[in-house]
Each structure stands twice: as C-alpha cells, then as structure tokens.
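quick q for whoever's on today - can somebody do inverse folding on this one?? i tried earlier but teh output was garbage lol. tokens:
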C-alpha cells in the first residue's frame, strides 16, 4: 500500500504525462496551422506549447526525484527538488516570452499577409482543451499539495490565455482586412506579457519554499491549536511550519509540568505529533522541543 507522499507523487506523475501528450498534439496543430495560415500569434502559441512539453518533462523528472526516500546524504528527503523544478518552469516561460516578444516586434515592423480564417477554429480547440487541462492539473496540484504540479497547471492556463489573445488578434486581422494584419502580432506581444506574469506567479511560491518561508498563518494557528488540545500541554510557542515538496514540516516548543519525567514528556510530545498528523496528514514530520513550565518567560 502506498503512503501519502508516494500516492500524491504517483498522481502528479500521471497528470503530468497526460499534459505532455496533449501539449505535444496541440503544439503540432498550432505550428502547422500558424505556418500555413500566416498567423504568428498561432506560431507563438506553438512555441509556448513546445515549452509546455519541455517544462512538463522537467516536472515529471522532478517529481520522480523528489519522491526518492531520504538517504545518508539527504536525511530530510528530496522534496525541495519540486521547488527547483517550478523555478525551472518559470525561467523557461520567461525565455519563451522573450522569444515571442522579440519576434512579435519584428513582425509588427514588417508587412505580411492576414491570417487564414481556419486558424480561428484551431485556436478555439486549443483554448477549450487547455482550460480543461488547467482545471484537471490544478485540482491534482491542490490535492497533492504540490507547487510544481500547480505551476504546470498555470502553464496550461497561460497557454489558454495566450490562445485567447491570439484568437482576438486573428479575428481583428481577418475582419479588418488590409492594414489590420499586425493585430495578430500585437496579440502575440500581449501573450508574451501574460506569460511573464504567469512566470512570476510560479516563481514566487517556489523560491519561498526553497527559503523555508512560513506557511499560511491560519495553518500555523491550526497546528498550534492541535498541539494545545493535548491535556498535558500547558503552552505552545515558537510554532513554525514550512513546505518541502508535497509535504509539510512543523517545529514547535511545548511546555509541560516541570515535575514530569523525561519518559512522560516524551509520551506527551508523541501525543502532540500524532494529533497534528491525524488532523493534518500533509505534515510528514513534527519536531517538538519539550520545556518545563518554570522555563516560561
């Protein structure tokens, strides 16, 4: 039977593989449609989908890496590999945005044909598919408590948004006719800006995880509350939480009766840990320092 980290990682791997397959299909569809349909916005979308394949592959490898058990050199496990992968995804998105933006500016300055009408059908298919993928992958990311999987989901959402921008640009280019051809390229430029924004949204929580940023204050309070539910616990202080991969860690000080034996204090600490993990199973470890009551400031 799989434990929770293994189960959530398996779920993330399965979701990622599905995303890779869909992204590969859509990248080919958009590239062919963009080249033959004279739409750089669609070609830009194809570039973004190709980046999807690359980053999703990175995610798949990262999930495999982060799921490795703790060893002699990594006693706390390999969970932070997920955050590294999320940062890699963000950087790849930035690179794609810069490439798309540069080519868009070049195309705006150069006259070219209006996009073919059938490119709109391709874009509609892409928008619907990518939005459905976003919802599916994001749901998995939330269930697995995985920043990397959630980052991959936002990548699908950014693809849907850029396709939406492309749809608007292509529509203007087709309906407007001569003189409006560059609307397609302006749409691609807008898509590049949206991609950069999404890259930041992915980067920010990932760097926070790498730097052991405190988790949500409400979650901290809940952890402290659960610790305080144990009758022998007089006081809870210095409760800190952090994320490592798909799981969380907590550290805290608890105060108990100074007349307790070491063994009794140990039993109380275990009761605190068990209570927290029973109610919040995403906490894979809880480090507890036991203090005597007369040590309270």
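ok took a stab at it. sequence:
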């Amino acid at each position: 039977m799989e434990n929770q980290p293994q189960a959530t990682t398996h779920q993330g791997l399965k979701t990622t593989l599905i995303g890779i397959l869909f992204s590969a299909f859509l990248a080919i569809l958009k590239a062919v449609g963009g080249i033959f349909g004279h739409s750089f916005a669609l070609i830009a979308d194809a570039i973004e989908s190709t980046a999807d394949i690359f980053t999703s592959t990175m995610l798949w490898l990262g999930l495999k890496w982060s799921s490795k058990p703790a060893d002699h050199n990594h006693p706390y496990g390999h969970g932070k590999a997920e955050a590294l992968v999320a940062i890699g995804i963000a950087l790849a998105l930035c690179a794609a945005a810069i490439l798309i933006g540069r080519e868009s500016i070049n195309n705006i300055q150069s006259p070219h044909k209006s996009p073919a009408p059938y490119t709109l059908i391709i874009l509609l298919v892409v928008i619907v598919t990518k939005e459905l993928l976003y919802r599916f992958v994001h749901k998995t990311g939330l269930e697995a408590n995985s920043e990397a999987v959630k980052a991959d989901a936002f990548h699908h959402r950014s693809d849907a948004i850029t396709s939406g921008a492309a749809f608007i640009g292509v529509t203007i280019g087709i309906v407007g006719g001569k003189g409006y051809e560059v609307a397609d390229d302006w749409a691609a430029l807008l898509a590049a800006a949206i991609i950069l924004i999404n890259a930041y949204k992915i980067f920010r929580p990932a760097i926070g995880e790498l730097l052991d940023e405190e988790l949500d204050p409400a979650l901290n309070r809940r952890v402290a509350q659960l610790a305080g539910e144990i009758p022998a616990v007089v006081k809870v202080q210095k409760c800190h939480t952090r994320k490592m991969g798909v799981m969380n860690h907590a550290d805290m000080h608890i105060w108990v009766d100074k007349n307790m034996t070491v063994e009794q204090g140990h039993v109380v600490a275990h009761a605190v840990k068990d209570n927290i993990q029973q109610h919040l199973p995403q906490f894979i470890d809880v480090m507890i320092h036991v203090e005597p009551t007369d040590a309270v400031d």
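fwiw The chain has two domains: 4-210, 217-295. also The mean pLDDT is 82. so keep that in mind when u check it
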